[in-house]
Specification:
Layout: E1 3-6, E2 15-18, H1 25-29, H2 33-36, E3 42-45, H3 62-76, E4 81-86, H4 88-99, E5 104-110, H5 117-120, H6 123-130, H7 139-148, H8 155-168, H9 174-178, E6 184-189, H10 196-205, E7 209-214, H11 221-224, H12 226-239
Parallel strand pairs: 2-3, 2-4, 4-5, 5-6, 6-7
Antiparallel strand pairs: 1-3
InterPro entries: AB_hydrolase_1, AB_hydrolase_fold, AB_hydrolase_sf
Protein name: Alpha/beta hydrolase
Pfam family, one: Abhydrolase_6
Amino acid sequence: MYYEIHGGKHCGTPLVLLHGSFMDTESSFGKLLPELVRHRPVIAIEQQGHGRTADIDRPLSYEQMADDTAELLQQLGAAKADFFGWSMGGNIATQVAIRHPEVVNKVAVTGSFFGPIQTAFTEEGYKGFTAIPDDFAPPVLKDAYDKLSPKPERWPAVVSKVRQMGLAYKGLSDDQLRGIQAPFMIMAGDQDTVDLIHLVETYKKLPNGALAIVPKSDHFLPVLGYEQVLQLLEHFLDHGSDP
């Protein structure tokens, strides 16, 4: 399992970065990382079948990747961490907060969802996800995968696994959401593929929740709107309150 540690000269709680589907550390957080490491140690992790971590003969699930993440942090000796996840990475961070609350200090997510995609996505977002073809290979994603992956031939299998994972996801119960005691910020662009009403309803169930909807932004907020993300994220990590 590939990971990077940045900002080693800093003390304090590390920030764990969790990338989106079909992406890697650089493509997800390349614009954010240089700024984030100025103030804190950062651990960037690449999940099964993504970036430099090879795919293996195992389905993908948010729960399993959360367990992988927690195990890696244990091996690194990181007793507690903050988490920032984009899309799939946010779903993983949420599962870490539920399954391994002892390692979680604060969690921030963007472009993530908390229920079945039929109800959590916009109509357009749902149609787009379910229509991902078997030969899905946009160059902006596939070229990086071919360059970084130790098993680039596994790309079609990873595409299938990501689609199956999303379609099979049943979401979180109200009790699970209310059981997340860590400060938890939901971030999204106002034109995200995730339905904003779904995000508001989820936010209301979090005991220590914060909500930030960025205007004139979409699912690619960490890349196209990284300045706003940086401001929101650093305020949340430093203060843990609504922006």
